[in-house]
């Protein structure tokens, strides 16, 4: 046991100096001397994560929990790693899968979604284009491609893809909403109104559809219609609507409207109450 502690302490000293390879060797010696040393597994995992060996780091964090399930530090370290590195680990593993087999549309799709989560929409778009080329009849892939095109503000291309989807699936509510969003961004307000209204005909309680119609009417300078649809959206999903309103520039023209102020303050109050009750 003492031998394990000695190697663990030496590994910490080496890691503090930035000598990561030497530190990893010491932590491995500590684990060899005592496989149940939760701290040695945690320390090795931390060094591996700093070296970019994310899969091996995850394995060591899990081993730390297995070695001592009652250790709060082990659970905390595992959780912190997953929270901070989970998406990077996913990207790394999707890339490894594609190195082995590039003709893998689902891997390209999921890699794209992980990249988009990191805000890397350009690389995400590239992966979605590959995925779509490999599986052109997959509606999910096609739709994600259209959404990414909206994210990078390539609205005409997004509209083209969304129209193709709706030719095959006229009842695709999400595609109708995204088409409305793209039309709104292009200033094609009549077309946007038609698409979003069609989405509501298919799903009359869809908070997002009411919200995007409200966005359209706000951009169209039809404040009363915008406020009516925004209030309707809030009746179906107040929490979501409050979150969206905090970052949506389309509603800036309404921010001095007493009716808008009343709605926003009510949503803010309700959200505050939810946090207090958690």
What does this structure look like?
This protein is mostly helical. It has helices at residues 2-16, 20-33, 38-50, 54-67, 72-100, 105-117, 121-134, 139-151, 155-168, 173-185, 189-202, 207-219, 223-236, 238-245, 258-277. 79% of the residues lie in helices and 0% in strands. It is elongated and about 75 Å long. The two termini are 44 Å apart.
Salient structural properties:
elongated, 278 residues, 79% helix, 0% strand, Serine Threonine Protein Phosphatase 5, Tetratricopeptide repeat, mainly alpha, 3 domains, 15 helices
Q: How many beta strands in the DSSP annotation?
A: 0
- The parts where pLDDT drops under 50 for at least 5 residues are none
Number of H/I helices: 15
Rounded average pLDDT: 94
Give the helices and strands as they follow along the chain: HHHHHHHHHHHHHHH
The CATH topology annotation of the largest domain reads as Serine Threonine Protein Phosphatase 5, Tetratricopeptide repeat
The appropriate CATH architecture of the largest domain is Alpha Horseshoe
CATH class of the largest domain: Mainly Alpha
The helicity comes to over 70%
Write down the overall geometry. Answer: elongated
List the domain count as a whole number.
3
Which radius of gyration do the C-alpha atoms yield? 25 Å
Strand content: under 5%
Major sheet characteristics: none
Q: Note the gap between the termini.
A: 44 Å
CATH superfamily of the largest domain: Tetratricopeptide repeat domain
Class from secondary-structure proportions: mainly alpha
